[in-house]
Specification:
two-stranded parallel sheet; 198 residues; seven-stranded mixed β-sheet; 9 strands; 6 helices; 2 domains; Rossmann fold; alpha/beta
């Protein structure tokens, strides 16, 4: 098996890291990454936060590829992948300061998004940070032609997929006691939504 590589990770990792450096504090000790994919983000970003233990999670079938990246990276502060899939597995039993996820909400079904946010509310301590990267619609409108085309492609792959509305996510979070702190514009018509457990 060849080591998997996600070109999107290579394109966006620098700009995401710049934002994480503004959000992650020295007091933050434990981060859970949901939907780690290849594991590239963890291997690239974790060395910048030596005080932080970075827990990777994804579907079991992606673990072998993730482990190839981890073996090559040889990082003390990245933990071996665990299984987590919203709606199909329990939320990881650990005390977390940060939950981080990239390009996942438009892949998941809306029901899975609802379950994940409910689990975040039930399991995170007060003040925990939630950082979500990806494309979002505003007022039900695509922010670019490329996002509109991407949404068509997503739905062709799986009908439950699609770019989510910013307002729907913020409302659902608020209903679960999670507040929006920042909505940060990113390159290539993406955003970082930074929430905290209130």
């Amino acid at each position: 098996m060849n080591k998997p590589c996600a070109p999107s990770c290579e394109r966006n990792q620098e700009v995401i890291l710049d934002v994480l450096k503004q959000i992650i504090a020295p007091a933050d000790k434990h981060l859970l990454e949901i939907g780690s994919g290849t594991g590239q983000h963890a291997v690239f970003m974790a060395p910048n936060f030596p005080h932080l233990q970075w827990q990777i999670s994804d579907l079991l079938e992606n673990h072998s590829g993730i482990n190839m990246w981890l073996n090559e990276g040889n990082l003390d502060n990245v933990s071996a992948p665990i299984v987590y899939q919203s709606g199909k597995s329990e939320f990881p039993d650990m005390e977390l300061d940060i939950v981080f996820t990239t390009n996942t909400l438009h892949i998941m079904s809306w029901k899975s998004v609802e379950i994940m946010i409910s689990q975040l509310s039930e399991n995170l301590k007060k003040g925990a940070k939630i950082i979500i990267y990806g494309p979002f619609n505003y007022n039900g409108q695509f922010t670019s032609d490329s996002n509109a085309k991407f949404d068509v492609w997503l739905k062709e792959q799986e009908t439950h997929r699609g770019i989510r509305n910013f307002e729907d996510i913020v409302q659902l979070m608020a209903e679960n006691g999670i507040r929006l702190k920042q909505d940060i514009e990113m390159p290539a018509n993406n955003r970082i939504l930074y929430f905290y457990k209130s």
